[in-house]
Amino acid sequence: MLVALIAHDKANHLDVRTENRAAHLEYIKNSGNVSQAGPFLDENGKMIGSLIVLEVDSFPDAQNWAQNDPYAKAGLFESVRLIHWNKVI
After folding, report:
1. pTM over 0.90, yes/no
2. 64 three-class SS
3. Domain range spanning residue 65?
4. Domains of the chain: total
5. Residue 63 maps to which CATH number?
6. Around Cβ 65, how many Cβ atoms within 10 Å?
7. Phi, psi (degrees; rounded to nearest 5) at 59
8. What's CA 28's distance to the chain center, in Å?
């Protein structure tokens, strides 16, 4: 199953994102669950959130993945939404 993780950063937390980026990218790379991923950008090109498409066996697996993301553990996100997603193209 595919699940889209849509996360918005807390205001003024770019330093938290930057400090935890290497661990986050390593987690993405090593988990084996990420189909696509990338940051949302503001009008100045600064990272302000994340879109990650997870390939998981169940919705609880997606929730577990999201909770263990180094960004989440560092308190980066203002909000995180997990939504079942269907790839068409």
Report:
1. yes
2. helix
3. 2-85
4. 1
5. 3.30.70.1060
6. 21
7. -60, -40
8. 9
